Amino acid sequence: MRFLDACRRKPVDATPVWFMRQAGRYMPEYRAIRAKASFLEMCERPEIAAEVTLQPVKFMAVDAAILYADILLPVRPMGVALEFLKGEGPRLAPPVRSPKDVARLRLFDPNEELGFVMETLRLVRRELAGRIPLIGFAGAPFTLASYLIEGGPSKDYRWTKLMMHGEPKLWDALMGKIAKVTSAYLAAQVKAGAQAVQLFDSWVGALSKEDYERRVKPWSDKVLAAAKKTGVPVITFGTGTTPFLESFAASPCDVVGVDWRLPLAQAWKRVGSGKAVQGNMDPVNLFLPRPELKKAVRAVLKEAGGRKGHIFNLGHGILQETPPDNVRAVADWVHEWTAR
């Protein structure tokens, strides 16, 4: 399959393309379902999650489907309440900030506690019938830790950084638990049908190079190394990684996802020739008129230079209100312009 071959830096007949958050609020079909069910209900009901996973696959010529779920699903079986508040995003309670809080976090069997995710994967694999591969995913230890400690999104990651620097043993205990949970979760996804997995470190750009290398990278690498043992391609992705991209890329992974802050050729040079690269158009460009959008797509492909191992994607997820036809057009252009 084109996407899996590119992950392994094998020759492909055209550059593969998929989009982070390709199943989501920009699609009217998604909004119709969302009007009748809460976000968590959509994740927990495999028939709905499978339908939403497949919506973009039916709409456009993407080269991979990605599981419809959320990176925060593991926090509930760990013992933390999770809700999504309209206009505010996720809220986790109580925040994890003390030794007692970390001690009470549970390790769990993902096949039992997150069995609905595994059933979604099985349903989607059955429906795809080998046409394109299915990507599973999880949140990286730093991003999950920051949500657990802050109790939700944060602008300054104050409590997270205070634990990291002020209580390093407690920080390591928390990251160790998250790494174990995430490793088991990804392994279960592969067993249930995921043909590649991506580790999302959405908030890692809040860190300095030193903090990332000393306090975060060892734990992310443990998860990535465990994922590599499953035998499927492993993608690592983070936003704001420019200050430490070499370190971020020097992980047990096959593919490095890069955001839009660096031209792709510069990013690839820093990643190194031994890894495939995924990215990296700015999601805002999908709102451009067609002539300007074409220029933006061509610019990314020019930076890639036809090298083996390029997977066209955005530098982050598709934004709400993005015109769906523009997304579909980009997928078509990438295939047309890179056909070998």
Description of the molecule:
The protein has one domain: Alpha-Beta Barrel (TIM Barrel), CATH 3.20.20.210. It is 48% helix and 13% strand. The protein contains 15 helices and nine strands. α4 (46-59) packs parallel to α7 (115-128) and α14 (290-304) packs across α15 (324-338). The two termini are 15 Å apart.
Q: Total number of helical segments?
A: 15
Distance between the termini: 15 Å
Briefly note the CATH topology name.
Answer: TIM Barrel
In total, the number of domains comes to 1
User: Under the CATH scheme, which class?
Assistant: Alpha Beta
List keywords for this structure.
alpha/beta; 340 residues; TIM Barrel; 7-stranded parallel β-sheet
Brief rundown of the structure:
Helix content is 48%, strand content 13%. The chain is an alpha/beta fold and 340 residues long. The protein has one domain: TIM Barrel (Alpha-Beta Barrel).
How are the secondary structure elements laid out?
Blueprint: H1 2-7, H2 28-34, H3 39-44, H4 46-59, E1 65-66, E2 81-85, E3 89-93, H5 99-104, H6 110-113, H7 115-128, E4 134-139, H8 141-150, H9 158-166, H10 168-192, E5 196-201, H11 209-228, E6 234-238, H12 245-249, E7 255-257, H13 264-271, E8 276-281, H14 290-304, E9 310-314, H15 324-338
